[in-house]
Amino acid sequence: MARELRDAALGRGDYRGSAEELTPGLGDPLAALPVVVTALATLVRPAAWRHFAGGSVSSYALTPAAWRELATRAAARPDDGSPGAGAPGLPAGIVSRR
What we know:
The chain has 98 residues and is mostly helical. It folds into 2 domains: 2-57, no CATH class; 62-98, no CATH class. The protein contains 4 helices and no strands. The radius of gyration is 19 Å and the shape is elongated.
């Protein structure tokens, strides 16, 4: 956990070239406070990640049923090659990265 936090803070590894968009601390140091508190809590008790991530994702993530509905609707539309047509079986605007 400590290594991951260090890499994120220093822009190393998978974080190389990335930029924090949700809580940029340079212009507003208080914006970083929740991130620091969360990082410290997770370092002290690694299982705390469940508390921080448990309810947040379920508020906006697609359920498997919703994804199937989107895929079904996309498959029913003709793929005419227009820019918003998407990949076969995927909703418009979603591109497969396989």
